[in-house]
Amino acid sequence: MTRADHLRDRIAARIDDTGFSAHGLHVRVGDDVATRRWAPDERAEIHSVCKAVAVLAAGIAADEGLVSLDEPVGDLLPAATDVTLRHLLSMSSGIDFPYSETMTTDWPDLAAEFLSRPSRGRVFQYSNASTYTAMHALSQRTGDVEEFLRPRLFAPLGLGDVAWRRCPNGRVLGGEGIALRTVEMARLGLLIRDRGRFGGRRLVSEGIVDAMHSDWVATGGDAEGYRRYALAGWDGPGDAWRLHGAHGQLIVFAGGAVVTLTAHDHFGADAVAAFIATLAGHSCGS
Question: Is the pLDDT of residue 285 over 90?
Answer without folding.
Answer: no
